[in-house]
Amino acid sequence: MDETGTIAEGSLARLSRGQTRAAIAAILLLILAGLWTLLPFLAAAGWAAIFAVSLWPWYARCRARWPRHGGVLLPFGVTLLILLIFVLPLIMVATALAHDAATFADWVRQASAQGIPPPGVLGHLPYGTLATGWWQAHLAQPGLLSRLPALHGAAGASSLDLGGRFLGAVVHRLLIIVFMLLIFFFLLRDGESIARGLRVASARAFGPTGEHVGEQIVQAIRGTVNGLVVLGLGEGVLMGAAYYAAGVPHPAILGLLTGLLSAIPLGAVIAYVAAAGLLAANGEIGMAIGIAAFGSVVVFVADHFFRPVLIGGATRLPFLPVLLGIIGGIEAWGLIGIVAGPALMAALLLLWREWIGTQPGPLNAAGPDQRKDEQAGAIDG
């Protein structure tokens, strides 16, 4: 076997056409059976792969500096670091969200039993008469709120039911986190051999184009994680702390919403403007102005200084692909789609740029300058 993983000619007897088809069918069945067996762990494996790909350049430098500890100690230390930096804060946010969700469920039950009178300011708005009439018909009378499809479960569920659902969700998420950390440890420990095997497999299956596309996907994942997820979490933490200090209702939920929307250009503006609106509705005009000003500074610094450096020019996406990648990714893949969606959009955009010749690559080796020179030479000839 040579360095590319190709078995030397003559070492195995050639298969007949029927044997080749049977072998391909057997391989596909084995792959499907393996995926079906590992289905409960695919989310954990996906998150572990995302963290490993994103942190690998930094981890490789650490491993080069301390080569003796690359077997157990260094991967374990980085895994513990991931636990402390990412997992524990997420658990704290989830606990705060659970508290806010329980408070919201209590409010829904109380409002369903008593009704919600229409606010006085509603009648002074455009089409206020129609809005007030709808409010009276659907929200003001006791029992009407529970008929709304979005709130029916929250209005009718007991605290015991909500607690059981929350406990089951927590146990499920904790298991995913445990297996994610375990897989992440082994990906770091055996990362070089895994990467070498993937390069050989892509080269044998697709040639140079396959390896190049794989590298672009890796760059897209790193740019997405660094520029969207990590920076978004930072914005969410900062704004969540500001919401809590300013007395905004449900600061954990609004902080998480700010972090998620920050992945979309100017998306965080929607979250902190909503928080400022809640403060203004309660008569706290000064705090509302402060939240709006602080949020504007955070978003401006993040979008104009940190995000371009973290993402880099190769994986920078326009507004629409980012928006479609995030929303479509969450719809298709769940929470992991926050990373998978934009990363796929970045890889597809890079392939498109190569195909149309705006940048060189295996799909179109001639870049725009070289194509101009070739066209000029053809005209002169």
Give a short overview:
By secondary structure, this protein is mainly alpha-helical. It has 14 helices and no strands. It has helices spanning 17-37, 42-65, 73-114, 128-140, 152-156, 159-189, 191-206, 208-246, 251-261, 267-281, 285-311, 319-333, 337-356, 368-380.
Explained architecture:
The longest helix is centred in the first third of the chain and has 42 residues, at 73-114. Helix 7 crosses helix 8 and helix 8 runs parallel beside helix 10. It is elongated and about 85 Å long. The protein contains 14 helices and no strands. Mean pLDDT is 75; it is low at 8-12, 154-160, 367-371 and 373-381. It is mainly α. It has two domains: 40-125 and 139-192, no CATH class; 207-365.
Give me some keywords for this one.
single chain, 381 residues, mainly alpha, 2 domains, 14 helices, elongated, disordered C terminus
